[in-house]
Amino acid sequence: MVVLSMPATNDQFSIIKNSCKSPPSYFPSNIPLIDLSKPDIKNQLVKACEEFGFFKVINHGVPIEFINKLELQAIKFFSSPLSQKEKTGPPDPFGYGNKTIGPNGDVGWVEYILLSTNSEFNYQKFASILGVNPQDIRCAVNDYVSSMKKMACEILEMLAEGLKIHPKNVFSKLIMDEKSDSLFRINHYPPYCSDEIQEFNGRNLIGFGEHTDPQIISLLRSNNTCGLQISLVDGHWISVPPDQNSFFINVGDSLQVMTNGRFKSVKHRVLANNVKSRLSMIYFGGPPLSEKIGPLPSLLMKGDQDSLYKEFTWFEYKKSAYKSRLADNRLVQFEKV
Ligand code: GA4
Fold first, then answer.
1. Catalytic residue among 221, 262, 269, 278
2. Domain count, the chain
3. 41 Cα: distance to centroid of ligand 1 (angstroms)
4. What strands, in cross-sheet order, belong to the sheet with 237-239?
5. Of 192, 257, 185, nearest in space to 221 by CA
6. Candidates 116, 117, 324: which one to mutate for ligand 1, based on the most atoms within 8 Å of Cβ?
7. In which pathway does it act (predicted)?
8. Ligand 1 centroid to 212 CA: how many Å?
9. Cα–Cα–Cα angle for 169, 172, 174, nearest 5°?
10. What is the whole-number distance in angstroms between the Cα of residue 92 and the centre of ligand 1?
11. Distance in angstroms (rounded) separating the CA atoms of residues 148 and 153
12. Residue 315 in contact with ligand 1 by CB distance below 6 A
């Protein structure tokens, strides 16, 4: 893959002491693997969301041509000269971003495209860089995003069934809503070379710093380059072996709240690689801005449990999220004392 060179002085980039390999006691085979073509997997899904807030799915049914078509355009885009790419940024929060993540000083060894899946997005500038018709890009994104939405809904409905919540579309209807505030992000992590960055003595450069995803559910697909790590409930980090044929699913903050903490919004991060480019595409399924988010009454009644969170609208959450740093816990302020 062609890789851009990122001009950088790197004092501002975080380094961490972990290696890309996991310590033996946290072997990645712990990560739940779910075969979406099998019947009756709802209990496995619930268990994965409770224990990890994270799982890998195989036999997902997403057409390979949708993945390849979009990935190819993304590679082409990220291989273009920086001056061209910058014409589609800076992100406000949507558009092309380079190293800067969010508005509050977070940086990473990453460049990306961030877009909203429901509002009209201007593909014109992207298309002219790629030398294609804007309609082709729009189609490639729409085909891919529609498959993500479909898979997200299937998973969310099985989760509702597994939790014995009625109706089963209680979560999925939020991302099916035409006003759903869902996002799509393509991240490119160029390999860092020692000419550009000082040697890190075996330590790793942060591509995308630790954080939880704000939305209900996130679906990630990457090429075969390692880098993604998740944090276990005990705070240990484990590396997720890449698999370009599978999807990795995260529970987001909103689903943690709606399940009153039963599902865990998983903390994750990405380490940059000094050999290979990593390219990931992530769909973030979010509710409409006006939606009230709080623990589902049916779950509280069932477990005879107190609500751990105050109710808030997705708009309120987002307003405060955009004032936060990436690694902040964005749910503390909504916890009941
Ligand atoms: C983290 C998850 C998604 O990538 C994202 C990010 C968003 C952004 O890049 O604009 C945020 C971050 C993410 C959470 C806190 C705020 C907003 C950057 C940031 C510092 C698109 C999202 O929805 O929240």
1. 278
2. 1
3. 31
4. 15-16, 204-211, 268-271, 228-231, 237-239
5. 185
6. 324
7. Plant hormone biosynthesis; gibberellin biosynthesis; Hormone biosynthesis
8. 9
9. 110
10. 12
11. 8
12. no
Q: Does 325 participate in catalysis according to the annotation?
A: no
* Cα–Cα dist 112/19, whole Å: 24
Predicted ipTM of the assembly? 0.99
Range of the structural domain that residue 221 is part of: 26-332
CB distance 291 to ligand 1 below 6 Å? no
| Close Cβ partners of 256 (under 8 Å, ≥ 6 residues apart) | 53, 263, 264, 265, 331
In a domain, residue 5? The reply is no
- Alpha carbon of 323 to ligand 1 centroid (Å): 10
Cβ distance 296 to 170 under 8 Å? yes
For residue 192, the domain's CATH number is 2.60.120.330
pLDDT digits (tens, 9 = 90+) for 55-114: 999 999 999 999 999 999 999 999 999 999 999 999 999 999 999 999 999 999 999 999
Determine, yes or no, domain membership for 318.
yes
